[in-house]
C-alpha cells in the first residue's frame, strides 16, 4: 500500500479554466516531493476538469459550495496534514516543510501571511492589514491558505456547511483548540476580483458583510449580496 503522504493540498474550483493550469503547475515541485494534490470541482461548465486531470492526483466532483467541496476533498484525501488552497493563490516555496514544522508545536492549525499581486495602488496596504487583523483576532481567511492536522479537521467536523464566511466559522472552531500558527512566508493571491470590482468597493463590501456576520446575520442572506460567491 502506498505510503501516507504528509500533506494533502485541497483545491476547490468552479469555472477556473483560465487559472487552473497555472495553479497546479505551481504545485508540481510539491507534487514530485510526495505531496498529494486533490482538485474538487463544483460543477464547472468550462474545461476546468479536463485541464486539471493531468496535473493532480485526483479530480473530484461535489455539490457546488466551497465548504462542501473542501470537506469532500478532505474526506477523500490521505495526507496527515491538510491545506486548503484557492485556485488563484500560490503557496510559498517548500510549503510542505513549513506546514510540517508549524504543526510539530502546540498549534494544530494555522495559515500563511498573504500578499496581493501589486496591480492596484493599495495592494500592499490591503495585504498588510489582512495579516495584522489575522494575528490580532486569531481568524484566518481562505486567501491565507488554512492548514491543519487531519485529526483536528475531523474533531471539529470540517468546514461548517454554509455558503459564505466558512473560513471565519472554521477559524472560530479551531481557535477553541489552539491559537493559529501564523507563518510569515507569504502566499501570493491574485488581484482579479479587486480589478473586476474595484479595490474600494471590495474593501467596503467585505467589511460590511463581516460586520453583519459578526452581529449574527445569516451567511445565506449575506451570500445573496456577495457577487463573488463560489
TrEMBL record:
InterPro entries of this UniProt entry?
A: Glyco_trans_2-like, Nucleotide-diphossugar_trans, Trfase_2_rSAM/seldom_assoc
Q: Domain Glycosyltransferase 2-like spans what residues?
A: 8-93
Q: Where in the cell is it found?
A: Cell membrane
Does this entry carry the keyword Oxidoreductase?
no
What UniProt keywords apply to this chain's record, in alphabetical order?
Cell membrane, Glycosyltransferase, Membrane, Transferase
User: Primary place of residence?
Assistant: membrane
Q: Which Gene3D superfamilies match?
A: Spore Coat Polysaccharide Biosynthesis Protein SpsA, Chain A (3.90.550.10)
| Protein name (database record) | TIGR04283 family arsenosugar biosynthesis glycosyltransferase
Native species: Modicisalibacter tunisiensis
